[in-house]
Amino acid sequence: MAKPRFDELRERLLRAGIAPSHVERYVRELRDHYEDLYRAACESGVPPSAAVHAARTKLGSDDALAESVLARPELRSIAARYPALVFGVAPLLMWMGLHTLAVWALLGVVTSNEHELRSQIPLDRLVRMIEVYCLVLVRVLPVLLSAGVFWSAMRRRASARWPITGAVAMTIAAASIAVIADDEQVGLVTSLLPGLRTAILVGYGSLNLSALGESGLRACLMLALTLVPYGFWLARRTHTH
Amino acid sequence: MASPGYLSGVPEILILRLLSDREMYGYEIVQAIEVESESEIVLGEGVVYPVLHSLEQRGLLKARRKPVNGRTRVYYSVTRTGKERLRDVASEWTRIASAVSRILDGGRDGKATI
Fold this sequence. Notes:
The structure holds two protein chains of two kinds.
Chain A: H1 7-15, H2 20-43, H3 48-59, H4 62-70, H5 78-81, H6 83-112, H7 114-120, H8 123-156, H9 161-175, E1 177-182, E2 199-204, H10 209-240
Helix pairs in contact in A: 1-2, 1-4, 2-3, 6-8, 6-9, 8-9, 8-10, 9-10
Chain B: H1 10-21, H2 26-36, H3 48-57, E1 61-68, E2 71-78, H4 80-104
Antiparallel strand pairs in B: 1-2
Helix pairs in contact in B: 1-4
């Protein structure tokens, strides 16, 4: 016995903003229910081919099933109710929050373990480690968050407008931050490791055309990593439906 | 029996009542309602799940996955809040049903008074 897949029903509910968790569970329960109805029909002497039809009819039409869910607005996801907040604003705030926490964590670790760090790790290696850590925060983390935003939007069949807005805003903000590791510069980290000649300067790009150009290029490259696959998915979805 | 508009809240009461005895999965609930009501009330087979999900979201039910005979089913049971809610709605239902009956029976002095 092949259970119905309810693909059209799933798409319809997701597009209407029903939370994916509800949709998936609903479809799974419908498939189980269908199997129970089919077995009950077979046990009552109905031939298997007729039992398939009887079970599907008794379960209800796709329209009736969809309407029973859509009549309950409480089953709509928060993302469907507040797309601008969830996809547009939250990613930027999340990145800023994570970035701030991570920098505080770094400062905490460095200040509380300064002597151990200096005695166990060569200075140039320590500087490189911190540089990589900062690069992860301003280059890798935004890309991962953008991927998460787009994945979430795809899963919810959400409109592309707010996810793209959110990812672009976050990426531009992150790309504008320059991480400079310089043997002669004295910057933020230096104040935490007094006496060191080599340190990392973490700063914001100055408002000159060259810096803006670099930031813009960085933002484009970072965005391309997630926006291109998302664009392909959007194109395929448009083509399919 | 079809589901007239005035019975819109009835599935919730019936589900809460049935699940207050023991946990059940969707198919069991639909069958139980049909049997207990002697086929006077027949819920749409597939439309019971949105009601269950909604009740769960409101904290009146809780769901858990349970493997039975090689299949994993979602069993629902009533929470403490659900039991309180059942008490309230059952008492309200009884009050309204008897009031409607009185009117349908012609009122206390033999005349329907609306």
